[in-house]
Structures are given as structure tokens and as C-alpha cells.
Amino acid sequence: MAKYLDPRADLTFKKVFGEHKHLVISLLNALLPLADDEQVESIEYWPAEKVPSRPLKEKDSIVDVCCRDNKKREFIVEMQMTWTDSFKNRVLLNASKAYVAQSEIGEDYDGLQPVYALNFVNSTMNVDSEGYYHHYQLVHHANSKEVIPGLQLVFIELPKFKPQNLGEKKMQVLWLRFLTEINAKTQEAPAELLENPDVCEALRIVEVAAYTPAEMRAYDKFWDNVSVAKTLENARRRSEEKLKVAEAKIAETEAKIAETEAKITETEAKLVNTVKRMKDRGFSAEEIADITGLTADEIEKL
Q1: I want to staple 72 with a disulfide (CB 3.0 to 4.6 A). Which of 6, 113, 213, 259 is the partner?
Q2: Which residues share a beta bridge with 117?
Q3: How far apart are CA 60 and CA 223, in angstroms?
């Protein structure tokens, strides 16, 4: 019985999709919103110097494979182990850089080809939506059929993927099952995955027996780093939540103070008006003091 490594790790993901062109082609065609006549046919991986650099804090939580097809379209594939809202900005930035990099000064803009960013998110990024597949592109505000095709961003929330409840394309289901069901706890690979040639090959690539002791140490270190990153991110979120609660309490207290001050001001105004009316009606200072509780000096000043 074969034992498997988790394909979402840096080592395994890059071995499957960063070293086997036909497998990343199959993945792109299955997961991207491509029409039948837009299918990827062949690709070349980006040279190392072209791959977007990442801040140190993200190096152990994001896995990427970048390539270009025979139509010169650019593809950035990422596995994001932790999630913050700022990652959307980073994805857009890197895709935009790839789009701009196609053009040299003075080159005709007609030669620019679309850039696709395919992002697998290993946590929940959109709590308000039940769907796991999120496709972003530039569209006309009033007419969504009018599209500027330069940038296309796809985010797939792996924790929300439920194949039994969906009717996607067969290969989309198989690849997402490969990414969500195969891990170190897998006792036996599902028959549906073994029956497909591409996914079956990917399964062989992530078998434990195919890795050296040094690679296994790197694999274990990756998951240790992911755990640390998640711990730090959870701590940051808890701190932000506590700060929001504290700020809300401060705002509530300030509102109550302002309300109290307003009531005091209103009461003082009424008292001043009452004293003036009493003076106008001939009440003596002693009588006003007896009724209002004010001192003679306070009454004199009003």
C-alpha cells in the first residue's frame, strides 16, 4: 500500500506542477475559465529571475509555479497556506507586473496577452459566500458582458470544496480532490483518481518512497513553518479583534460622557432661565437660594 505526502506542500506541489509540463497544463485547463478554443496546449516555465519575490514572512506560506504558453499568455499558479485580505492586493500586483513586463518601450499594445493568476487558498477567504470558486476580471460596471481581458484572477477556497454537491467538469473535480484528499493520513487513494492518467501520475510523484531523507526533512520543515505562520496570523487576528472590542467600548463610553455632558448643559440652561424668570417676578435672592439651592454669589452672577 502506497503512502503519500501532501501535494499542497512546497516540495510536492513544485515536483508535480513545476517539473511536469503536461500536468500543469491539465491543471490550468481544468481550473481556469477558458473556452474550448482557449485551452492551453504547451508551456514554458518562467526563469527563476522572473518569478515574483515575496517578503520573508510569506516565503514559507506560499507555493508558486509560473509559466507561459505558446500563445504568450502568462500563468501564475499559487498555493496559499495562510490568508489575509492583503494577499488579494499582492496577487493583483504580481499579475499586473507580469502584464506590464510583456511590453517594451514603443511596442504596439496589441501584442499584450492576458495574465492569469490561479490561487489555491488553504483557508477560508470569503466568509460571506458559500461558493469556493471566485473569478475576478475587469468588466463594465453596467454591462458585465463588456470585458477587458488583460488580467484574470481566480481564487479557489479548498476547505469549501465539496465534490459530491457540485457538477463541475470532471478534471476540475479530480484535481481538487487530489489537492484536498491526499495527505500523510491517506490509507488508499480513491479509485476515481487512480483511473485518470494525469492524476494517477501525480499520485506516484507524491508517494513517500520517491523522496530522499533530505527532501523529507525539507517537507517536514515546510509544515513546521506553516504552523508557525498560522499561529502568528491567528495571534494577530485575535489582537485585532481585542483592539476592536476595546475601541468599541471606548467609543461607547465617550458617547455616554457626551450624552451626560449634554444633559448637564441642558439642565444648567434651564436653571439659569428659571433664576432669571424668578428675578423678573420680584423674588428675593434669599427666596431664590432657598428654592434652587444656589448660593447668593451664584445667583448674582446669573
Answers
A1: 113
A2: 76, 153
A3: 9
